[in-house]
Give the backbone structure.
Amino acid sequence: MRYQISGKQLDIGEALQTHVKAELGEVIEKYAQRPTDAVIVFSKAAHEYHCESTVHLSTGLTATAKGHASEIYAAFEACRERLDKQMRRHKRRLRDHHNRRSGPVEFDGGSSYILAPTEEADDGETGELLPVVIAEMETKIPSITVGEAVMQLELGGQKMLVFRNEGHGGVNVVYRRDDGNIGWIDPRNSK
């Protein structure tokens, strides 16, 4: 497994890196058979240290966790506990409900655009600003079931996930609603 441990405007010592590798390796080994890599970033805001971790699993799913505390080791421990909880839930769901997958998740490519208004893009009549494309990047769209999409949404701590429904091949969206529930958009069923 590859570890990328870094600090944003912080010097991360060898002792902390060794501690992170040992503790995180123990958690991941317990719940995931073949993780590919882990990215851990430490930062400091005022008097508080923050730790963000992202673990990529061989199944194509990604688990993320964040922790913060007044000491750097405590921030990592908070992050590790959250990651442990997510991985435990993920393992339980795979064991209980999602044991039908025989191969890894397949990904399709897709373009992602960031839109921002500019002052030059005035339409003249209403005085409103029109959006202009300022960035374009490639993104990966997984081909998974709805249940796996919800699991990925929860594991990644995301608000929305676009995926290709493995059942019928159409593009679907799952998202976290304001009331805490999960919403599912399937354009194929809108007829």
Summary: The chain has a mean pLDDT of 79.
